[in-house]
Design a protein that fits this description.
By secondary structure, this protein is mainly α. It has six helices and five strands; from the N terminus they run E-E-E-H-E-E-H-H-H-H-H. It folds into two domains: 7-63, His-Me finger endonuclease fold (3-Layer(aba) Sandwich); 88-144, no CATH class. Helix 3 (93-102) packs across helix 4 (113-126). The N and C termini lie far apart (55 Å). It is found in: Nucleus. Residues 2-71 form the Histone deacetylase complex subunit SAP30 zinc-finger domain. Keywords: DNA-binding, Metal-binding, Nucleus, Repressor, Transcription, Transcription regulation, Zinc, Zinc-finger.
Length: 157
């Protein structure tokens, strides 16, 4: 409580209040590869960053090129504009673990939230979605005031 963000941007310490996200060496390495001009302030006694820098780091990390992209690698933006990004960092660790368990994703035990988000995110982005069927099913469910568990009960009767 009362701590300021531990990062320096353009040589000056950030004056925003620190949140609960922390600045790890892995994050530092990944953003330095992207040429983002933020660094850890050596005088900071903690590693907590503000929400502004957290969102900045996440947006930079989400700009990776998708595998199997039809783009020929020209001067176009790296992030596909038509593909909405899902911020998996907003989910709780237990939710990420349930997702991992449900889809039987093989990982080593004891992963932290950032590692879980990366693994779940890769799997989530790889799931093919038939938009027409999904929207039709959604509209049907809303019109008929049903949820997934209701449909399972109805189909078994």
């Amino acid at each position: 409580p009362g701590q300021l963000c531990c990062l320096r941007e353009d040589g000056e310490r950030c004056g925003r209040a620190a949140g609960n996200a922390s600045f790890s060496k892995r994050i530092q390495k990944s953003i330095s590869q992207k040429k983002v001009k933020i660094e850890l302030d050596k005088s900071a006694r903690h590693l907590y960053i503000c929400d502004y820098h957290k969102n900045l780091i996440q947006s930079v990390r989400n700009r990776r090129k998708r595998k199997g992209s039809d783009d020929d690698g020209g001067d176009s933006p790296v992030q596909d504009i038509d593909t909405p990004e899902v911020d998996l960092y907003q989910l709780q660790v237990n939710t990420l673990r349930r997702y991992k368990r449900h889809f039987k994703l093989s990982t080593r035990p004891g992963l932290n939230k950032a590692q879980l988000v990366e693994i779940v995110g890769c799997h989530f982005r790889s799931i093919p979605v038939n938009e027409k069927d999904t929207l039709t099913y959604f509209i049907y469910s809303v019109k008929n005031d049903k949820n997934k568990s209701d449909l399972k009960v109805d189909s078994s009767v």
